[in-house]
Amino acid sequence: MFLKYFSYNAILVVGKLLSSFIISKVSAVYLGPSGYAIVGNLKNVIQAILGVSVSGFESGVIKHIAENKKNDKLLNTIISSVVVFSVAIAIVIGIVLFFFANILSEYILKDTSLASIFKLFGCLLPLTSLNFLVVYILNGKQKLNLYAKIISITNVLNAFLTFLLIYYFDLHGALLASVIIPAISFLLSFLFKEIRIIFFTVYKNIKNVSMTFIKSISIYILMASYSSLLISISYLLIRNEIIGKLGIDTAGLWEAMNKISMFYMVFFSSLFTLYLLPQLAINKTISGYYSIMKSYFKYLIPLTCVGFLCILLSRSLLIKIFLTDAFQSIEQFFYLQLVADFTKIIAFSLAYQFHAKKMVKFYFITDAILYISFYLLSLCFIRYFDLQGVFYAYVISTICYLVSVSLFIFFNNKNYLETQ
Fold first, then answer.
1. Which of 205, 225, 287, 346 is 20 to 30 Å apart from 105, CA to CA?
2. What's the CA gap between 252 and 248, in Å, rounded?
3. 65-95: b (≥16 Cβ within 10 Å) or e
4. How far apart are CA 155 and CA 170, in angstroms?
5. Which residue in 25, 19, 30 sits closest to 166, CA to CA?
6. What angle do CA 255, 259, 263 make, to 5 degrees?
7. DSSP β-bridge partners for residue 418
8. Is the full-model pTM beyond 0.70?
9. Burial category of 233 from C-beta neighbours within 10 Å (exposed 0-12, middle 13-18, buried 19 and up)
């Protein structure tokens, strides 16, 4: 089964990589390192906001839909409740974004003339949230064909519109693309009959919205919101520290390394939610857990090692392909980035048990260990090692994260799973 999901996921990731390649190349050519840094700041803010308005629903939606696929009545209640609650949160946050656009623009984008970006994002946030919910619902239902079509449309749209907007409007176009494309993707998803049926069913069941269900997944919302805020704030603060100490171009180099990391990490993140989370959510026993993880790591670790070795050996070529010569100096950081990312992949795989079984306390503690240590170590190491210090901090923080996750899983699984 793992290989089935692995190969399916690989097809989706190829499309995502092609889209990311076009965006990365166009951004590198037209925006340069400084533009990369500003777009990175906006991406972090978007990530934090979506973590509160919609991303927090991901694990809960996938888990409950996967567990209740055959109960149509309960399934309709789940979907309707999630849609209504997510849109309500998005509207409230959108209003705040609209009225605080000038302040956000000055601190995040370093230019108050770009306040319209936050105003537009605030207006489109409900549609953006619905776009992500569609993907979560299809994932939970295991509608892989339609899931793949929706993701593919988003990838094509992302590449095409981003290219046009950056080509004609430079940095403003890149920022504009970040906020409008998810909303457009949602509207295009209505081309598919099953998506129209989902939202027609939501409309019919709106009176059946269940606050009891919302409360039951509130812990997932809290977990994901907490994580998104930690990630976004820590990366935003680190990037601004680099800008202050080493300059905006250097911050752009770090962002470019993060972008290359994203190219391969997107494969693993989608594999976590497409395959691992539903499996862990359904499992009830300790032996079942170890069987799932043994099968998972049996394929994951060798494939990851081979892939990362290829990336390391071809790093100079990858920079030329995905970026430009202005970014060539990041070649020296690849080995540190890959070591840290490999460690994080293993740790994240283990940590999905926290999502599947609502091991909230351990999730909060381990995420704090990862991101707070990354931020604090970065502040310290930048003074002595310049930009390389941030990569040292990343390696150390991911190792601490892996150790803490492993220990919590090992000593506490028996409290959440049956021993048979």
1. 225
2. 6
3. bbeeeeeeebbbbbbbbbbbbbbebbeebbe
4. 20
5. 30
6. 170
7. 285
8. yes
9. middle
Element (H, E) at 88: helix 72-99
Q: Distance from first CA to last CA of the chain, Å, rounded? A: 23
Distance in angstroms (rounded) separating the CA atoms of residues 147 and 154: 11
Confirm whether 272 is domain-assigned. Answer: yes
Nearest Cα to Cα of residue 322 among 26, 21, 13: 21
Q: Report whether 81 contacts 87 (CB < 8 A).
A: no
Please compute the mean of the pLDDT values over residues 2-11 and round it to a whole number. 60
Number of C-beta neighbours around residue 298 at 10 A: 11
377 in a structural domain: yes
Does residue 420 sit within a domain? no
Please indicate, yes or no, if residue 126 is contained in any of the structural domains: yes
Residue 285, beta-bridge partner list = 418
Q: Give the span between the Cα atoms of 93 and 125, in whole angstroms.
A: 8
Our CA angle for 146, 150, 152, nearest 5°, is 115
Task: Count the Cβ atoms, other than its own, within 10 Å of residue 99.
Answer: 12
Exposed, middle or buried by CB within 10 Å (0-12, 13-18, 19+), for 236?
buried
Q: How many residues does the chain have?
A: 420
Domain limits for position 256: 2-415
Residue 206 is given by DSSP the state G
- At residue 142, φ and ψ (nearest 5 deg) are 60, 35
Confidence of residue 210 (pLDDT cuts 50, 70, 90): confident
Measured CA distances, 252 to 30, 264, 323 (Å): 13, 19, 12
Q: How many domains does the chain have?
A: 1
Specify the 3-state DSSP secondary structure of 284: coil
pLDDT tens digits, residue range 322-358? Answer: 888 889 999 999 999 999 999 999 999 998 888 788 7
Distance of CA 301 to the CA centre of its chain: 21
Which residues lie closer than 8 Å to 321 by C-beta, 6 or more apart? 21, 25
**198, 80 in Cβ contact below 8 A?**
no
